[in-house]
Amino acid sequence: MTSIGKGALLFLGGVLFGTAGIKALSGRDAKKAYVHCTAAALRAKDSVMKTVTKVQENAEDIYAEAKQINLDREEAEMNAVLETKADEPFEAATENEI
């Protein structure tokens, strides 16, 4: 058999297989299977979205708490500096320093 004849046979076989495949994929049973698979995918999507929402809420809580910790720390450092200044003796300025 020549390569042209072999190629033609492969092409015809592909057309026949494709036609049979289209018939099988467009049948009632196939449609029912597609519907069930799509429904399962939608349920999975909903589950993933709920998980993502929970993770996002937790991340926002963590961020807010971390921000508050840093504010409290800054305030404590400022108070420590003010207490140190308060413990130092007060020196009145002389006329030359004014």
Secondary structure: elements and pairs:
Layout: H1 3-25, H2 28-87
Task: Walk me through what this model shows.
The chain is mainly alpha-helical. It has one domain (3-87). It has helices at 3-25, 28-87. The longest helix is centred in the middle third of the chain and has 60 residues, at 28-87. The radius of gyration is 39 Å and the shape is rod-shaped. It starts with a helix and ends in an 11-residue tail after the last helix. The relative contact order is 0.04. The mean pLDDT is 84.
Annotation keywords:
mainly alpha, 98 residues, rod-shaped, 2 helices, single chain
Q: How would you summarize this macromolecular structure in one to three sentences?
A:
The chain is an all-alpha fold and 98 residues long.
Oligomer: single chain
- Uncertain runs are none
Largest sheet: none
Report the strand count.
Answer: 0
Q: Helical amount among residues, as a percent range?
A: over 70%
In whole angstroms, the N-to-C terminal distance is 114 Å
Please trace the helix and strand order, writing H or E for each element: HH
Radius of gyration: 39 Å
Shape: rod-shaped
How many helix segments?
2
Count of separate structural domains: 1
